[in-house]
Amino acid sequence: MTDSTTTQTTTSSGRTLRTEEMIINMGPQHPATHGVLRLELVVDGEIVHEVIPHIGYLHRCFEKHCEHMTNYQQVIPYVDRMDYCAAMNNEFSYVVAAERLLKIEVPERVQYIRVIMAELNRIASHLIAIGTYGIDIGAFTPFLYCFIDREMILNLFEMTCGARLLYNYMWIGGLSHDLPPEFAPKTKEFCTYYRKRIEEFNNLLTFNKIFVKRTANVGVLPKDVAINYGCSGPMLRGSGVDWDLRRDDPYSVYNKIEWEVCVGKGEMGTVGDCWDRHIVRMREMEQSLIIIEQALAQLPEGDVQAAIPKRIRPNPGEVYARTESPRGELGFYIVSDGTATPYRVKGRAPAFSNLSVIGEISRGAMIADMIAIAGSTDIVLGEVDR
Amino acid sequence: MDPYLLSILTNILLALVPLVFVLVYALVTIYVEMKMAAHIQNRLAYMRTGWHGVLQPIADMLKLLQKEDTIPTDANRGLFILAPYLVFTGTYAAFAVIPFSSAYIGSNIDLGVLYLLGVSSLVVAGILMGGWAANSKWTLYGGVRSAAQIMSYEIPSAFVILSVVMVTGSMNFNVISKFQEGGVQNWLILGGAFPLAKKLALIPFMFVMFLIYYISSMAETNRNPFDLPEAESELVQGYNTEYSGMKFAMFYLAEYANLFIVSAVVTFLFFGGWTSPFGATASGPWWDSFWFVSKCMVFVVLNIWLRWTLPRFRVDQLMYMSWKVLTPFAMACVLAIGLILVW
What we know:
The complex is a heterodimer of chains A (386) and B (343). Chain A has 386 residues and is of the alpha+beta class. Chain A is built from 15 helices and ten strands. Chain A has a three-stranded antiparallel β-sheet with strand order 3-4-5. In chain A, strand 8 and strand 9 form a beta hairpin. Chain A is globular and about 85 Å long. Chain A starts with 5 loop residues before the first strand and ends with a helix. With 343 residues, chain B is an all-alpha fold. Chain B has two domains: 17-66, no CATH class; 70-342, no CATH class. In chain B, 68% of the residues lie in helices and 0% in strands. Chain B contains twelve helices and no strands. Chain B has helices spanning 3-40, 56-66, 77-93, 112-120, 122-133, 137-168, 173-179, 196-220, 232-235, 245-270, 285-307, 315-342. In chain B, helix 3 (77-93) runs parallel beside helix 10. At the A-B interface, helix 4, helix 5, helix 7 and helix 14 of A face helix 6, helix 9 and helix 12 of B.
């Protein structure tokens, strides 16, 4: 402990007591940091005085790689690897940006399939988020419940494009494969099955007395702080801000589907606590099921590869497109210089902004609360570091 | 043969009986726990080693025996090596006063209950020692948390034991057990062998006392929802993070042995100890041990079930529960039971 600071208290008899703070490293190899994140904690016993996140352990030069591709299409596999829990949503964001740059109109069928895939992947991603959150709070069993259900979604993906984690499924102007004929019935089956499972899961974890005690009134993120730090997704909605890009800045066919945006209401404690963020994720999964069912019902016939351009060479210019990934506002800023290679690709990762707020809201909390707060931000380090 | 030497030899042999039992019991319980956890979680657990993986605990033990026994360079060697054995000794010593049947008890002393409370506190010293000696901040947290937790929960559990001692008038588990002879209706959870009016008055308090003791016993065994000392997601593995090989196995064994001890105490205090639930039928030394072990296993299984279902408490909530909920309730119940007894 080279640079430990001290805290002073004065007793009633006028003596000053000094206790030394301890600096302790949580991570990069720690079970609760969801990947390779290092949190430097300044603690006084069990009380956390300061949290300093150190990132960059998973930095893979995403942006530099993109500038050295032969064409725009080759960026997609890299995008998959940013937020590996929700690869479909990342592809979605990138292809929307590239299509806006190229000014291509995509067939309706492609749009609908993309929405279905993105929502399925949102459920899969939230399942990891809430499952690992259970582990953070100390309940191991819900995690495996989540993984059983996630497996069913991955089977649907595998059936469609052959991959289970990193899909390279959405291409600029189209899709790599059309849906197999058994996809629609199996997805409908999953939707009815999963509704019951959400209820079961809520009984097991969400409304468990101990779980509520551990998460309600913990890590309260007020509205203004959430907005100032650029939080988005369930983090922002958990704080009671009614903001969802799928509704407020519609892309693809989200404006043709009816669903609700879920916000935290402070049912168990204060608006913006960890429990609110958790329940927002739970309710979003129900909404995703509604979206999937509607999209399946409206799904038109057609060719999914008709609009894929032979040569991708956009005119010089720039574009920023943003979509709602499971973690929040995921945006891609692409600059074209008229050649086949992107001049610059910048990703706006929601997890990065969401992570930055940890230090602010966990000051004064206990170590166990700190874990609960870090878990409720649902960070994926691949996306934070890129 | 010299009778003195003979008595020493028989004593040693008798003292080894629980050790054999603990080893067999630990293997069985590890298997049961893994299988139960797996089935709660929709998994199968081990299936490859023998029929449904029954040999897996033995394989695990062999693996731990072969593992390199690492000691961190900056650790306090002496304390680091001593800690796991101290923990196990404390737990094992408690078996001395536990009568496995009406015919077998390691040491038939009058202060059995008090002795048990005393030696099981050694566990705290061992855990604190291990957490401190490993010279890691995470293990230190585990050790300190464990000390605070076990100390706090000993208070309500001592009150519960006190109330049973008041009712039965003895601190010897054999006598406590005999007091409840004659079938289910005489168990202390159902008011013991008293006239009906007294019995009915005792039942609610005994039930509350049982709950208090069971909750405290879960906390004393450091298992979920009270597994803060080894909270995996917070403290990596708590006080035993730096341990490997046989030393880790000792901690592991002590945890399971401790689990049996607290289940045995619950059985003695409220569920008739080694007595048969059917009165005189199915009683006798062998039946007694059968009933005793089965009753204990029920509580062990209940503990495992709870462990794999519930999330974990936070440190302050844990302390709150002990000092502000369980202890006052236990004190009130002791008072009430005392009044009922003199009535």
